[in-house]
Amino acid sequence: MNEKLGIIEINSASIQESLFNSFTNYQYEFINIDNEEQLEEIAGLMIFANQIVDYIEVCQWLVSLRNRKPLFVWIICKDYDENMKELYCKLATNAMIEVIQCETNKQYLMTRIKQAIDFQKSLLSYKKERETTFHLDSKSLKVTIEDKEIYLTRTEFKLFAILNDNIGDTVSYKILIERIWPGISSKNYKYRLANLVFHLRKKLRRQTNIDIQIIRTKGYLLKKELH
Predict the structure, then answer these.
(1) What CA–CA distances, in Å, run from 166 to 33, 82, 182?
(2) What is the CATH topology of the domain spanning 134-224?
(3) Which long-range contacts (CB under 8 A, 24 or more apart) does 57-62 make?
(4) pLDDT of 132
(5) Sign of the C-alpha dihedral computed for residues 26, 30, 36 and 40 taken in this order
(6) Angle, to 10 degrees, between the axis of helix 173-180 and the axis of helix 190-207?
(7) Is 207 helix (H, G, I), strand (E, B) or coil?
(8) 128-163 as b/e, with b when 16 or more CB fall inside 10 Å?
(9) What's the pLDDT at 49?
(10) Among 47, 111, 117, which residue's Cα sits nearest to residue 76?
(11) What is the Cα 40 distance to its own chain's centre?
C-alpha cells in the first residue's frame, strides 16, 4: 500500500507542480489537506509557501499539529529565513520540521522524504516487535507476562481485564466501578477502586514493565512500555 503524503498549498501551485513531476518514481499517494482531520491519515506533510504573508497560515497549520499524531513536515518556500525556521520549530511541538527552499535540488527533497518515511516504518516495526505480550487466564486468575506469572485476586483480575480490553485508552472511574461491583454507587466506591488499583500496580511493578496510569479526574489507563 502506498504511503500517503499530505499537501498544503499556499499560493504556490507552480512550485508544487514542478516538484510533483519529480516524484513519478516514488510510490506515494498525495492528499490535498483541507481540514485537520485529514492529518490523521498521512505519514508526512508538505507545506508549500511562496509569499511572506503565507507564513501566517503556515504557523496556523503548525499549531494545529500539536494535539495530533507526530509527523514529519517539510516546508517548501521561496525565501529562507532562519528566524522563521526557529519560530516554526517552536510552534510545531509534535512534529519534525525541515525548511527547504524551492530552488533546492529536487532530488534532495525526494531523498529526505524517503529517508523520513523509511525511518518511520522501521521505528513502528521495531516498537511492534518489542511490545510486551501477555495472556490472561480467568480460571486461575493469573496473568502471564512473557515468562512471568502473576496471580491476582478476583477483583484485581476483573480490573486488569477491563483495562486490557481498552489498552491505551482511559477507562472512567464510573465504568470501572459499575463493571467490577455491579449495582454499587460509583460515588461511594471511588476510594475502594483507588485502593484496588494501588495493590494491582504494586504486583505489576515487581515483575513487569506494564503500568496503570492515573488520569486525574477521569480514570485509569493500562500502558505497555518497551523493554
Answers:
(1) 31, 44, 19
(2) Arc Repressor Mutant, subunit A (1.10.10)
(3) 57/10, 58/10, 58/88, 59/87, 59/88, 59/91, 61/8, 62/88, 62/91, 62/92, 62/95, 62/97
(4) 61
(5) negative
(6) 90
(7) helix
(8) eeeeeeeeeeeeebebebeeeebebeebbbbbbebb
(9) 83
(10) 47
(11) 9
Which amino acid does the sequence have at 14?
Answer: S
Sorting pLDDT into bands at 50, 70 and 90, what band is 16?
A: low
User: Is 118 a residue whose pLDDT tops 90?
Assistant: no
pLDDT digits (tens, 9 = 90+) for 40-85: 888 889 888 876 668 888 899 999 888 788 889 998 887 777 888 8
Which pairing describes strands 219-224 and 134-137: parallel, antiparallel, or unpaired?
A: unpaired
**Percent of all residues in the chain with a pLDDT value above 70, rounded to a whole number:** 83
CA nearest to 28, candidates 46, 8, 13: 46
For residue 126, count CB atoms less than 10 angstroms from its CB and return exposed for 0-12, middle for 13-18, buried for 19 or more. exposed
pLDDT in tens, 165-195: 998 889 999 999 999 998 877 677 888 999 9
Give yes or no on whether 3-130 and 134-224 have one common fold: no
Query: For residues 78 and 50, is the Cβ–Cβ distance under 8 A?
Result: yes
All three cell numbers of 34: 483541507
What pLDDT band is residue 89 in, cutting at 50, 70 and 90? confident
Q: What is the domain partition of the chain in residue ranges?
A: 3-130, 134-224
CATH no. of 3-130: 3.40.50.2300
Angle formed by the axes of helices 13-20 and 106-130, nearest 10°: 70
